[in-house]
Each structure stands twice: as C-alpha cells, then as structure tokens.
Specification:
By secondary structure, the protein is an alpha/beta fold. The chain has 15 helices and eleven strands.
Length: 418
Amino acid sequence: MAAPLSRTCCRAAERLRKVSNFSPFLCRLSTSQRAKPNESLESSGNPSLSNKGKIRIIPSEALFRTKDANPIDHGNNHVGFFYTLSENDVIRLNPFSRGFAKIFSEQCKAFTETSIMVRKPAIETIDFLKATDFNSPVVRYVLYGKEGTGKTLSLFNVLHYAATNGWLILHAPEVSKWIKFPMETAPSGYKPGRVDMPIESVEWLKQFKIQNQSLLEKINLKTTKKYAWNQRESADIGVPILEVIEFGVNRIKYASDCFGAVLREVKAQSKALGLKTLVIVDGANALFGRSRLKAEDRSEVPLDNVTIVHNLKKVLRNDWRGGAIVASVGPRDHCTGWFEGTSTPRSLLGKEGFECFDPFIPIEVEPYSDKEINSCLDYYIHRNWIQNENGCTTEGRKELIFLSGKNPKELMHICMAL
C-alpha cells in the first residue's frame, strides 16, 4: 500500500506545484503520517492531537451531514449537506459500479460508506419530477456544466429519488465509454449493416432487472408484438418482459435485440399501465457525432447503425407519455477525448443532438458554492481523508479552495495526497 500511495502523493504534489504562487506547505506530507482513511479517530491515543502534537479540530457531523437519508424528503434546506445511502440501495441502484466515476467509487471504498452531497441541480430536477404530468408528452431535462462539477452524482441523486418513489428506471450510465471502448462488437443478426454490443447489452439487461426487480414483479409488462430472434426462436405477443430479459442474458448473441425490445415495450406501455418511467442517460452527447467503431471492411460505422445508440435515441424522443427524461451532457468528446468549446447544451450536443432534445429544460451544474466546498472539506477532515494538519487550518482550506477553483473533481484529486 505504501508504494502506490507514495506515487499518488507525488503525482498530486506535482499537479499542485504547477499552480503559480502555490505555498508548498500542503505538500509536506510523509506517507508514514497517513493512516487509513476509514480508521476511526477514537482509535488513536488522543483524537484531538495530530502526529506532531498540534491541535487537530475535527468538524462535527452536524456541519456537513443530514440525517434525512430519504431523497424524497430533501429540499433546498438540505443543499450542501451529505446524506448516506444504505448498502442495499447502492447494490440495487449501482450493481456494476457504472453509476459513479471510478475515483469516486474508490473514495467510497476508502470511506466504507457512500455519501452524496445534496446539490441544487438535483433538488431542482426532483422538484420538476414531482410536478410531472403523466398524461402529457415526456419532458426532457438536460444537466450541463464544466468537467468535474458533479453532473453524474446529481443524476444518481435523481435516480435514487425515482427508485425510492416507485418509478421504473431506464438507466444508461457511461454512454461515452460504451461507444469509445466497447468490450465487444458483432454484426447485427436483425438488420444487416448494424453493429451490436452484446456484452454491454447483457450488462444493461441485468442492471435493469436488478434496479426494478420489485416493480417488475408487480406490473403486467408483456410484449405487444412478436419478436423473431431467429428462424426457430421468437417471443410471441403476451410474453412477460422478464422472460425477454432472461433470454437476452442467457443468449448473448441476441442481447442487443432484447435491449431494444425492452425499451420499446416500456415506452409503448408506460402510459397505459400507469407507470412512472424515468429515462436517465449520462453523457447523452456521445450519442451524436462521429463513431470510432469500424466495420469488417474497416470503414467507419455511423452511430445510427449501432443498435444500442439507435434504440436509445428512440426512447429520448418526446413522442410518448407516462414518464420523464433526464440526461447529462459533458465536455468530454467520445471521439477526440476532449471537447474544445463552451459547456452549453447547444455546443455540447451539436446541431443533431440539440434538434433531437429540443424542447428541453436546461439545468446548469455549477462548481461548489462557499457553503458546499466548506461542507466537503469538513467531510474529508472528518473521514480522515485530509490528515496533514496544514490542510485543516483556515489558511490551508483557503488554499485548497483556490487551487481547486471550487471544482468537486479537482478538489477530490488534490486532497488525495493530503
């Protein structure tokens, strides 16, 4: 453990030294001073003393954590406070660890808990969802902002609310990674020229079943048309959707077709069955633009010819009722790796994507406010993530705020070595 931590400290220190006029005292940290992040403060001889004998002020949990763990009860008075998800909720809503960024998942593992800050964009979106008119065409909400401002975590907060409130979840996380780094591709057996992503499709089918297990057992969701998988196998009208999911999981060759069938049936029957369906797509701008996928003849495959993309674009239309659509768009481009331009929905989605989503309600995810970043620093200090006594001082906190630019992801990177 010492060697990777040392390398992490060196990388973070090098990152910080590039900032002009940076005081190096935050980098004065030896790995021997660093305890395990989830180690309780009471385990040491005197929890109020640092390793050098200086006073270490441990923030009270009341300063940064709320006891209201149910997102249904959250409002503007909870903004800037962390709430902790139960282990069962994390397993159910994020079964394959796709709903969080990798660095956040590692941090949760170190903290031995999954806590998310309640932020204004999530509360604003949840308030819109509470006022949804299920008899009208679906309304689309687009979260946008600069890299690392917390769009994915805000989406997960909305996802947690919807799952707790009895919504049927269609969650597509890490769309850009599906397109940029597919685990496997195969020619479609349904339509010549299309490309399937069988492994991603199987994973999504399993995720859909786990996230909606209890609801799927209650509702009467069955196929409304015949699906012919091949010349001998098919799903007739009236087949439970759970059987379609099991078929796709067990027969990976047809997983992408089952993926499309599930989306089609949910979209077609949401209003008739009285469902509350929430479509969540993280990184929706990856669905538009160029593709990095190659056909057998090494020619570029248009994104519309990718089965997953084709079906996701269909469900993103507002030609159905009984639900809502929440998507995020980010500055990372799935083809070049980075987007050069403004962080507005028009720039990120491009002409095709903007026309696909229009009309929609834009919701900006901004960097931390003063209250939010101080709450985050209190949380890091309390969880023993910031152990360097200089980082716990008023001057140290000011310097961390300045270096991070109040960007949640940057703050997370910087504090990894403190």
